[in-house]
Write a structure and sequence with these properties.
78 residues, mainly alpha, 3 helices, 0% strand, elongated
């Protein structure tokens, strides 16, 4: 029983740390896109978010917008 509990605590800690990393990457990507107007760098960061969380719809949408903004429309369709 204690082993199962320890495993559960570890899994929750891992997911929380992972989501913190995702939030940080999204924040950096948004800054690159909106503040610095650098969609190429923002696209790299959004792709990194999607590698960590493939179901992140916000990152997928923003990545498509980066592709559209840089005329890479063939990549817009994921």
């Amino acid at each position: 029983m204690a082993r199962l509990t320890l495993l559960t605590v570890w899994a929750i800690a891992f997911l929380w740390a992972q989501s913190g990393k995702v939030r940080k990457l999204l924040s950096e990507a948004d800054k690159e896109y909106y503040v610095y107007r650098n969609p190429e760098r923002a696209a790299e960061l959004y792709k990194e978010v999607l590698s960590l969380d493939p179901t992140n719809q916000y990152a997928a949408y923003r990545l498509a917008r980066c592709y559209w903004y840089t005329n890479n429309t063939e990549h817009c369709l994921l």
